[in-house]
Structure formats: structure tokens, C-alpha cells
Specification:
Elements: E1 4-5, H1 7-14, H2 31-49, E2 62-67, E3 79-82, H3 91-103, H4 116-119, E4 121-126
Parallel strand pairs: 1-4
Antiparallel strand pairs: 2-3, 2-4
Helix pairs in contact: 1-2, 2-3
């Protein structure tokens, strides 16, 4: 299995307002710090593209797995991992998928080219409950 940015880190970042600007990885950064920086970059990108449906009252946690090439472009289609029993026709689930497609390619990740193994497969966790 390919390494991935842990969903818990991405979920936290998607549920928080991360600082603006594209960080540059520090030469002495730990793997966890790199993962956190990558999650922050993805958070800033995805939140600008995600538009929730007006009818979204109770938001499920939505997780999509994506694969990226070295340029940050999607390889294949986003794969819905959660919630179980939902499909692409669900408005909230579809809005998360549209956000991924709108934001791609994730060119800001090129700042982390030497860490491509960390971000070539990512589980994006859309969880806005922490903002309520």
C-alpha cells in the first residue's frame, strides 16, 4: 500500500482555519511536520473550492481517496471511502467530489516534490462538525 497523508491530520486541517500562504518545508522538519504542512496546503486549496448545498443540515464525514501525479494532477477519479451507503448522487457527497475536481491540480504541493511519497495518495476527510 502506498503511504498517504493520515486522514486524521487532513480531517483536522479541513476542520480548522489554517494560516494563509504556501509554507516551504524546512530542511529539518520531521515527517509529521511535513504531513501537517501538506495538510495545511490542501486545506487552503479545498476550502476555497467547496460549496456546501443550502440544504446541508447534518453533515456526514465524507472521505475521498485521491491519487496525484508529481505535478499535483489527479490520476483517475476520486474514490468515495465514506460514508457507507452514500453515493455520488447525495448532494453533500457530490459537493465534496466537485471541490476536489475544481481544485485539481494541486500545484502548491510541488513545493514538497521531495516528499512525493507522502502525498501521491491522499485520503481527504471532509468534516465540518468541529466548526459548529
Amino acid at each position: 500500500m502506498m503511504p498517504a497523508v493520515p486522514a486524521r491530520i487532513l480531517g483536522l486541517c479541513l476542520a480548522l482555519f489554517c494560516a494563509a500562504g504556501t509554507p516551504r518545508p524546512a530542511a529539518s522538519a520531521s515527517p509529521q511536520e511535513i504531513e501537517t504542512e501538506i495538510a495545511a496546503v490542501l486545506h487552503r486549496t479545498i476550502t476555497t473550492c467547496w460549496s456546501l448545498p443550502a440544504t446541508a443540515a447534518a453533515l456526514p464525514v465524507i472521505t475521498y481517496r485521491i491519487h496525484l501525479d508529481r505535478g499535483g494532477a489527479l490520476v483517475g477519479e476520486p474514490e468515495l471511502l465514506a460514508p457507507a451507503g452514500k453515493d455520488e448522487k447525495d448532494q453533500i457527497v457530490a459537493s465534496a467530489r466537485r471541490a476536489i475536481l475544481r481544485c485539481a491540480p494541486f500545484t502548491a504541493l510541488q513545493s514538497y516534490a521531495e516528499h512525493y511519497d507522502v502525498w501521491k495518495q491522499i485520503d481527504l476527510r471532509f468534516d465540518m462538525s468541529d466548526l459548529q
